[in-house]
Amino acid sequence: MSNLLLGVVSAFIATNQAAALGNVVAQQTGFVVSTPATNSPAGVELQKLMDADDAAQAEVDVWIKENQKFAEQGAGVPNAELNARIMKRFELVRHGYKDYLKRHTNSASGYVAYASFLGDIRDEEGAMEQLELARAIDPKDPAVWNNLANIYGHIGEVTNAFIYYAKAIELDPSEPVYYHNFGTTVFLFRKDAREHYGINEQQVFDKALELYDKAMKLSPDDFLLATDVAKTYYGIRPPRTEAALNSWTNAFKLARDAEEREGVQLHLARIKMHADRFAEASAHLSAVTNSSYTELKTRLTRVLKDLESAKSGDTNAAPVETKAPVEKPKESSSAK
Predict the structure, then answer these.
(1) Is a pLDDT exceeding 70 seen at residue 11?
(2) Backbone torsions φ then ψ of 156, nearest 5 degrees
């Protein structure tokens, strides 16, 4: 299921739907579920259960997409009705996991899979409970530590997330997701990272980028990871312009199609215009022809003209738009 639609699903089934919908586009760290061994009847059964889990979420994905289309035409079902339908569908999955774990109480992978399902529907307290059971059975499973760290990054003590990601990496230093998640959490919770590691903000940025760099070395062709790393530079002050351009240039090389390449062109234009490299920024904007980017391209073109006018000393120039065309990462706090 896509991250956006997964967020919408979570919002539908959340108690506080308004708050949940506000977090739909929030950056999420990745849950990891190991493939169960299929050389035993229990492993085969668990794999079938996980496949049924995926199928249920895909089905709900379709329901939401279809209802959104119908709603645009004034024919969608009320949220409460769709919510009830989703809950009923997911209840079958929940029952399947519970039944399996009643019969396989020592299945660490079963608890992890169930925790992943609960995490998908944003029952993070329930997911944490299942992961703690898995950790008690198999404390050397790095996925358990990573997944617990993800939850601590959303609820609980953020410093536990730092510790648990480090433990996951200690157990499996070859998994790029662990470095990616760790870097994201360090970057988002900069105040906590400063206090926990006894370092200043610039050193926090360096630590997050170092973790991202390790993830990229392990997964050098991952476009989404590369763009995640590049977006980090929007939140770094003072700006690290050349490093940001290098990062976006790398993402451009990894783009999988023309639409992704044009999206990167917009980022390159934005960075260069704020570095007074106006001609280069204009060339990047001219390379964008996809209609899905028209609004953003128009906004950036206006900003570019205003910056050029301000630089040339034009007193009639409009005030430069300071609102970022692309959302910047924001620092979070673990205040309870």
Answers:
(1) no
(2) 85, -160
> CA–CA separation, 221 vs 261, rounded Å?
14
Contact 215, 225 (CB under 8 A): yes
- Give the mean model confidence (pLDDT) for residues 182-191: 97
pLDDT of residue 78 exceeding 70: yes
- Complete DSSP assignment for 203-271: HHHHHHHHHHHHHHHHSTT-HHHHHHHHHHGGG-SS--HHHHHHHHHHHHHH--SHHHHHHHHHHHHHH
Q: Identify which of 205, 247, 256 has the alpha carbon closest to the alpha carbon of residue 226.
A: 247
Other CB atoms within 10 A of residue 145 CB: 25
- Higher pLDDT: 49 or 122? It is 49
pTM of the full predicted structure? 0.80
Torsion sign over Cα 178, 181, 184, 186: negative
Please name which of 257, 271, 329 lies closest in space to residue 304, comparing C-alpha atoms: 271
List the structure tokens of 80. 């409460």
A 10 A CB-CB count for 120 gives 21
Contact assessment for residue 270 and residue 322, using Cβ atoms and an 8 Å cutoff: no
The span from the CA of 116 to the CA of 50, in Å, is 10
pLDDT for residue 257 is more than 80: yes
259 contacts 292 by C-beta, under 8 angstroms? yes
CA atoms 161, 164, 170, 174: torsion sign: negative
Give the torsion through C-alpha atoms of 73, 77, 83, 88, to 10 deg.
-120
Q: What is the torsion angle, in degrees rounded to the nearest 10, for the CA atoms of residue 155, residue 159, residue 165 and residue 168?
A: -100
Q: Is 301 in contact with 294 (CB distance < 8 Å)?
A: no
> Cα torsion for 224, 230, 234, 236, to the nearest 10°?
130
- For the chain, the first-to-last Cα distance in angstroms comes to 31
Confidence of residue 317 (pLDDT cuts 50, 70, 90): low
Which residues lie closer than 8 Å to 142 by C-beta, 6 or more apart? 32, 167, 168, 169, 170, 171, 172, 175, 178
